[in-house]
Amino acid sequence: MKIPLSWLKEYVDFEDTVAGLADKLTFSGVEVEGIERLGGGVPGVVVAEVLAIEKHPNADKLTLCKVNFGGPAEMTVVCGAPNVAVGGKYPFAPLGTTLPAGFTIEKRKVRGVFSEGMLCAEDELGISKNHDGLMVLDAKWAPGTALSEVLGPPETVVEVEITPNRPDCLSLLGIAREVAALYGTQVKVPDATLRESHPAVEKATSVVVEDLVDCPRYTARVLQGVQVGPSPDWMKRRLEAAGIRAINNVVDITNYVMLECGQPLHAFDQKLLAEGRIVVRHPKPGEKILTLDGVERALEPQMLVIADAVKPMAVAGVMGGEHSGINETTTDVLLESANFRPASVRATSKKLGMLSDASYRFMRGVDAELAEFGSRRAAKLMCELAGAKLLMGVVDVRSEPKKPWKVVCRPARLEALLGIAAAPAEIAQVFAALELKVLKCGPDAIEVEVPTFREDLTREADLIEEYARIYGLKKLPPVRSMATIVPDADDKPAQAQARLRDVLVGLGLQQIMHYSFLAEGLLDLFDQGNAPSRVKLANPLTADHTVMRDALLPQMAETIGLNFSRQVAETAFFETGRVFRLGPDGKPTETDHVAVGLFGPAGRTGLDKFKPVEELEMFLWIKGLWEQASAALNLRGAALRPADRPWSEPGRGMEIVVDGAVAGWLGLLKAEIAKEWRLHEPVGLLEAEAKPLVKDVEATQPLVPPPSYPSIRRDAALIVGTDVRHERVVDVARAAAPAELEKIELFDVYQGKNLGEGRKSMAYAFTYRSKTGTLTDEVANGFQAKVNAALKAQLPAEIRES
Amino acid sequence: MDIQEVDGLTAQALAELAGAADLAALEALRVKYIGRNGMLPALMQGLKDVPAADKPAMGQALNRFKTGVTAAVAERKAALEAAAKVAKAGAFDLSLPGRWARRGRLHPIQQLIDKTSAIFRRMGFTVADGPDVETEYYNFDALNTPADHVSRDVQDTFYLPGGLLLRTQTSAVQARYMESRQPPVRIVCPGRCYRRDTTDATHSANFHQIEGLYVDEKVSLADLKSDIDHFAGELMGPGVKSRFRTHFFPFTEPSVEVDFSCHMCGGKGCRVCKQSGWIEIMGAGMVDPNVFKLAGYDPEIVTGYAFGMGIERLAMILFGIDDIRRLYENDARYLAQF
What we know:
The complex is a heterodimer. By secondary structure, chain A is an alpha+beta fold.
């Protein structure tokens, strides 16, 4: 809301700078969003008309303008503005003028041509920061007119944001009340005494309100002999400074009074109302209305309209109708000052897509007791400014009036909540300054009566806030910050998740983050089977955010693709995040997941980076990553089993099993999917539930001391069929070996023509160690011989020992 | 051969050794002077013919010869070998790129969540968690936000089938947490929130907040101020302070908006704080009595404060990020800088 300060000062006195006022308002809850200075002009600056434009001989972007500024001669001015045009009128600073920036215009050469003055942009005049071009003035102004006349007297406009709890501040008087409380002065309420003439208003009109819930109050006054015409300049200027376009005196007065006191008003041309009377009712089926903005709107039964005897004339509290508006021929005005239920106005306003200054106020709540004052003020102004004759009395149809209510504030409670010890009298003084009536002021309690316009003050806490904001939040006493240890507050789950992230970072992965919703097509690409259990947004905003993610991998792959398209050919990412699915009961469930994505030579370092990455290598990276992570997380009871997923390359996927339950998958992305992003090399992916992975992070295990005796190593190269798996070799060897076999390490796999078709060589190192003594060569050889014999017989294998 | 001749021979040998051009020449000289068939054994052989009176002196002279030559050979050998290594250094390329282990990084949003959580942990808060999918009750009703309140507008909230919604604020955790335990409560809750905002440089439909809640007997607005001041200094640097401005939130009374003094200019005014010296950081206030009542706490017995702030906004301020969308774009080159 825009507050022209000269207008505000009509209702309240205060001694402060604009910045000081803005600061006080902001800290007490009326946030100042901007300060705008209007009018005033700059001494010496006048209107000039550009008569002719020539190119500057020495500069492409400059022009030479011949201007008439009402002086004895035409002047030639060098101008650089892009919007200068022949016939245009602009502010002109003649030679000798001093501009707000502090420099004085002198005759001087610009690129070799004399410039005799300056055509000005808004920033050069200190009006705004705009330097896009010359300030364009209305063609009606004669050259030589002082800019101060064009712009009007100086005005400062403070723009404030009013929070939803303070609809009483949506007016100048509301702000004036705040200012008065902050500066300890009084509000000057404008005069609303009326001179009424016979006959009584009841003779001229009647009002029926069919729904007193949606319309708790409707008042009507009738003014006759109205002369519709332009408003006086002072009123136009105030309205325009407040951001409202002046239309005619009658309409302007309704707007003026709304800004002044917060009561929205509407003026009907009474002669255009069938039977000249008002019926406040819900629309009948099929009724429509042409609103003031020229749009025909279909009405719905739960809306509320102001109708005449026949048809709707206005949407209650939202907008007037085209057919009953004030026009040049209007002589009789029916002045509406009413009150409508906020939720009803909100629903109607939203449904019709119409927001007006009136509906904005009604939606937030207008005090029903304000209707009469607003009506009187407008009627008074119409008598004064439009020559109207006011009929006697008012038609006032209303529900039970709201009565002021009592609230108690205990100083002890105030101190507990704010940490401020205040004397009861001090507290009472603040309440009184806010126009709360102090009924009792004792050491234990202060009782106040709250005026109806402060509907937000119903409880002790509300009063305590009033005290705090007027007393000043800057004066809160310093206290010592104390940490409190809360028993039984366990954040181990959060710490376990942090540990998981630390492990993945330690393994060289970059964390990424995606939105929780995405386009369903991306999820389908990975797993269409999940479609029935997806959680869809009921009111998505854009087509690419329609469904909650049920997996992390689709966005992971897409991001690898995005990076690849930007020439980042090597990526190692992880994400931790929630996935959403409908449970068996049809309700959304959410689970924390973790995903890893590897692409390019991400597992290599240094010079090896430039060799192409084979499928097996990528698979072993993603698998190794899992193995390392699970080891670092101390995870027990975990295993991998071959299993393909809809997104994994056939035969290149495994499922992660923890304590017998599938907790996730890892493998290579299916080439068909990868090519969506032109990824033609293997992509290693892993996704798992986060919780099972961290179940053992807190657990400890018995420590094993470092071995006391040296180990002995024996190597064996097995020539086996290509279908023999590493896992099988280890199983056979373990079964045959004694307890002294400490580890089996595969150190080479070789396939070559010399081995023959269908055969490969696998070289293993076997490490033996005894807990009770140093092993001899003979004993180790004996161990290995048993192992070799088993491998030969069971794989089968040929063996070359060493 | 007399003593002078032996000493002369020593000097000659040392001179020749010092001039040996390479290891082969050095070896030849070693053999010539002290090798098994070289001069030294021959001279030692001749010692027995030296008159008895001269023998000790001659012996010493021969010893000088032996030790001098032996030492000179070793010294020259070391010098030649070192020279050979230096000569070979051309093949050992010191300028090759170093080998890097892959370095992982947390996302900047995560870094801020961790950093803020760590500060609050030290102040006695524990980290709590709540669901992203919420009911109207926890997201609005339990937070004293009536059904016709502006923020309940479908415009601002993403709804899911069955009347559920995506939480618009981490404050939704407050009521859940209070329902499940008795005071005192001292928690922070970092998490995702969603608003039906068009995404642009400063708005993101999916974002993160961290919420704080402290409930006990005699918690006051002055405690909130001191605790937030402490947090401000820990997060933004020593000397950074907070200031409170009266505001409105349905779930706190009094409600305040909290600015931090600008960490870049110390409050003098700069580009970061838009010349104001202050940066808006969070919303806060004293828990509304209605919120306590709905959670089953007696507002006559306990008081409490709550606060909430946007993590993305903090990240943008602290790291100087110009566009919130960069945080969700996941360009590896950008993220690697945090």
